[in-house]
């Protein structure tokens, strides 16, 4: 499928309009915004894994799960801000495609830069896991004192707390990495996390690329991003989250070593990084798959 079938729009495009798109350059405010936000959002998503370790250390599994859900919700809400930036990039690419009948190569690499930012965020979140563990433990105790998740979360914006957290930032003990052997972890958990992360990472981005592949069904293609991410969320809920919860419960009951939970969190972070790398490979195939799906819903395109 290509954009050639909508090239009839080219008759209404002047060379100046085409040149205007070319003059914008690779970097733009929407691209930089999406890149920076994706770094932060992905780091928060990786940091949420620390809730499992905090739950074992404090013995407050229920509270830790609530904090985990809070982190996840915050990251997904922040991720919504990336969508308008992607829309702006896609609008420019769609205008160019409508004029010339070809997708600008720059658009693909802009999307790959956004995905690459997610990889950087996953690495950053992994490096900051010890700090996230401390944040979760502080959050658990703050919730116990105040009885309100909102008040406990707002404490993070207290200048004194920010200063204390900044002082506590530390890198993982790299000398202990050899002890994180995944032999006691289910292989399906690790492979599942790679697959789920890859699908979730590429879903929205691929749908915007698909919207430029088939301009007649571009709104349908963009709307399918929710379906793709919904599939990723369901897969996470069925194959990843229950297993991690079960391993954490076993550690709390003494049936597993707390080291197993630390190992699990480390390998969840590593497989998430791998998932983001895999998402680069499936961006274009995923975009054409979504475009084909949009064509089914929009048969006259």
Major sheet description: none
Per DSSP E runs of 2 or more residues, the count of β-strands stands at 0
Spatial gap, N to C terminus: 11 Å
Mean pLDDT: 80
Put simply, the count of helices is: 11
How many independent structural domains? 1
C-alpha Rg (nearest Å): 22 Å
Estimated helix fraction:
over 70%
Q: Write the element-wise H/E pattern from the N-terminal end onward.
A: HHHHHHHHHHH
Please state roughly what percent of the residues sit in beta strands, choosing from under 5%, 5-15%, 15-25%, 25-35%, 35-45% or over 45%: under 5%
In terms of structural class, how would the helical and strand content be classed? Answer: mainly alpha
Bulk shape: elongated
User: Low-confidence segments, ≥5 residues, pLDDT <50?
Assistant: 1-11
Short overview:
Helix 10 (218-252) packs antiparallel against helix 11 (258-297). The protein has helices at residues 15-23, 29-47, 50-58, 61-100, 105-127, 129-146, 149-154, 159-168, 187-213, 218-252, 258-297. Helices cover 78% and strands 0% of the residues.
